[in-house]
Amino acid sequence: MSKKIILSGIQATGRLTLGNYLGAIDNWLTMQEEYECYYMIANLHSLTVRNDPEVLKNNTLKILATYIAAGLNPEKNTLFIQSQVSEHAELGWILDCYTYMGELSRMTQFKDKSQKHSDNINAGLFTYPALMAADILLYQADLVPVGEDQRQHLEITRDLAERFNKIYGETFVIPEAYVRKESARIMGLQDPTSKMSKSATNLNDVIFLEDEPEVILKKFKKAVTDSENKVKFDPENKPGVSNLMQIYAAITNKTMEQIEQEFDGKGYGDFKITVANSVIEKLKPIQDKYQELLNNKEYLEKIYLKGAQEAKKIASKTLRDVKDKIGIL
After folding, report:
1. Long-range contacts: 167-173, Cβ < 8 Å, 24+?
2. Strand pairing partners for 74?
3. Distances (CA, A) of 107 to 83, 102, 156, 178
4. 29-42 burial string, b = 16+ CB within 10 Å, else e?
5. Of 64, 74, 91, 184, which is most buried with the most CB atoms under 10 A?
6. Mean pLDDT value of segment 309-316
7. Which CATH number fits domain 5-179+297-326: 2.60.40.1180, 3.40.50.150, 2.60.120.920, 3.40.50.620?
8. The dihedral formed by the CA atoms of 205, 210, 215 and 218, expressed in degrees to the nearest 10
9. Is residue 313 flagged as an active site residue?
10. Packing angle of the helix pair 268-294, 297-326 (nearest 10 deg)
11. Residue-wise pLDDT tens digits, 257-296
């Protein structure tokens, strides 16, 4: 039997964080042996906010370098840049014409981002889910790794695929969510009730994958905890401590019970330093490989051009089928 197909990606805005790594990329590593994986850098989605052109270009290469440095094998995965496969934009427009305004207006991410970027509420931000649906459906993806904040977008993708299939016959695979129960949802160090974000205004709230060891240690020492001084997993009443435990568990593969026992009778100071050192140790080889890759732009270009060529093979086939069915010559 052929392998099931997985599609995922990260926007090319901002620096990647520990949350991006533990919540997404680290999980992708386990998939590359079992599935046919397509991982993109979503630079078209990045256009919903204003970017410095050079920064956007550099971020695109940095994310590709991070993918490879973290362990995604270009020989086992298709790593590509979204904009270099024009079928994304073309199918995105076609799906716009099958997406209802009411569906788009209910998207919580549109509401949230509209509040954060009230000076730039553009049409792309509103129709973002149709382009995301195109990303997924082009590759006939069976599975899509999603966090809670993307579940709505996957649901509208499924609705669009079913709607199109009902009108024109079987065209798209209906994708399912790929959720690993042990997947870490990493929260902010200063606001442990909100997801760690690339766009955080408080730099102490986020660990960037490029952060130097002394910076990582300093940020963990400042992490919000509580007055109890007891390492116990209780997300509702101890969100800060529980978040640090989630990070430590994701890196060490220890259970919450094992972590509680390890730090029984110890204060938060020791705990924070231990968590920080585990992160520093985990990121060191990734950071070293990342710098090596960034210094070899020719290699990165070779990878993303090859990836676009491979992605285009399946994307163009899907788009030809769609255009034939709707009457586009």
Report:
1. 168/325, 168/326, 169/325, 171/321, 171/322, 171/325, 172/137, 172/140, 172/318, 173/5, 173/137, 173/140, 173/141, 173/142
2. none
3. 24, 9, 9, 20
4. eebbeebbbbbbbb
5. 64
6. 97
7. 3.40.50.620
8. 40
9. no
10. 90
11. 999 999 999 999 999 999 999 999 999 999 999 999 999 9
Catalytic, out of 3, 4, 62, 113: 113
- Residue 218 falls in the annotated catalytic set: no
Domain range annotation of the chain: 5-179+297-326, 203-291
Phi, psi of 208 (to 5 degrees): -90, 145
Active site annotation includes 195 = yes
pLDDT band, residue 110 (cuts 50/70/90) = low
Q: How far is CA 77 from each of CA 31, 34, 69, 216, rounded to the nearest angstrom?
A: 10, 11, 13, 30
Q: Give the pair of three-digit tokens for residue 97.
A: 């014409």
Residue type, position 172, single letter:
F
pTM reported for the whole predicted model:
0.89
Please state which architecture CATH assigns to domain 203-291.
Answer: Orthogonal Bundle (1.10)
Residues 58-83: tens digit of each pLDDT: 999 999 999 999 999 999 999 999 99
The catalytic residue among 3, 76, 195, 302 is 195
Mean pLDDT for the chain overall: 92
Determine the Cα–Cα distance for residues 108 and 114; give it in Å rounded to an integer.
10
pLDDT above 70 for 256: yes
pLDDT of residue 290: 96
- Identify the active-site residue in 3, 57, 198, 219: 198
Provide, rounded to the nearest whole percent, the portion of the chain with pLDDT above 70.
95
Q: What is the mean pLDDT of residues 9-13?
A: 89
